[in-house]
Design goal:
By secondary structure, the protein is mainly beta. It has helices at about 1-20, 40-45, 60-70, 170-180, 375-380, and strands at about 75-90, 95-110, 115-125, 130-140, 140-150, 190-200, 205-210, 225-235, 240-250, 270-280, 295-305, 310-325, 325-335, 345-355, 360-370, 385-395. It has a 16-stranded antiparallel barrel, surrounded by four helices.
Length: about 400
Amino acid sequence: MNKITTMLAALLCSAAVLAEEPKGLDKILPAVSDYSGDTDAAFLEAHQPLLQAPAEGSEKDAKYWAEAVGSRLKVTGYAQGGYTATFQEGNSSANTNTFDMKRIILMVGANITKEFYAFFMHEFKGGNVMEYYMEYRPTKAFNLRLGQSKTELSMENPMSPTVLESITPMSQSVGWLCGGDPLMSNGSGRDMGLMAYGDLFNNKLRYVVEVINGGQINKNDRNNQKDVIAKLEYRIVPNFRVSVSGQKGYGCAVEKSVFNPNIKVDETYRKDRYAAGFEWKSKVTGTDYFKNRCAMVRCEVLGGRDGNVGSFGVYGSTAIPLYKQLDAVAMVDYFNKNTDLGAKQTNLMAGVQYWIHKKCRLQAQYMYSAKSNGMKNLTGSKNYSTILTQVQIAF
């Protein structure tokens, strides 16, 4: 907790010190966390910096500086918890049910100057610092980020669990290829590195280039070789986007994997990834899923190779408004963890979600997981059903 307090204090002090040059505050770029993937327009409108400083010595000085610092900071967070029950076919002794807290997140973003932005994220359930980075934003066409954040492989990985349809919340292929496999053991989908990104042609084309460690979060690189991720995303119309991304690099195995038994612990192996997909919305919503209802379809194809073992997956996810803030949600999710051994699993999910207020919602879902014989032989497990409920509170 001392580390968290120190980091938050540093961000507050930085904003306060740099606020001593108040002229031009109206030109500061928005403090937008890329974790959510969208601009919170309501926040930006309500927290525009002051345009002019009061005369020195004025009785309004204290209020002015308090508002100037407050206008540079954005504190957000969310919690997700609920009930999960699993039922394995032919093996009732393996059934489980529990109330669970999935994640508790606090995020602080700071506009240090009109060109420099800092971000910090802490996850309280696991006690881990998830993201921390500094950005240089001279123009929309070119930005630099140094630090730890979600990698840009796929459309889904950079998206927040607060807007994803599935409680799980990620598709099998995105979770696995972005670091969740046993060899990498980095289920958060984040990494430390340097990122360049920007929006071109009136924000229709977005590009991202990353150089990252290619390992676990909050740890140094284990093999001194870096991974490169490149991504292009094009908005044909404002509510329809297509995306392609790829990753090339080397991993250093931290654990053994039954899906890739030839790679030993601490061995460096070749690691390649690719993803392509689209997302369509019936209308542009930003992050307002409470008042601005719309239908949505997102689909991606992903694949990779670790050493000599290939993997392949595809998923499709949808949300359809039913009545006021009530949605029907569904997802088809297929992934083959070893294409030579046929380690396949298909998840079929259906459920509903009700938006209580802005980013707060109630969710209930049923998922059936069907495994191939190859997967059953490797894992010793069978097909199973899962009932999931979740309460999401966000601010």
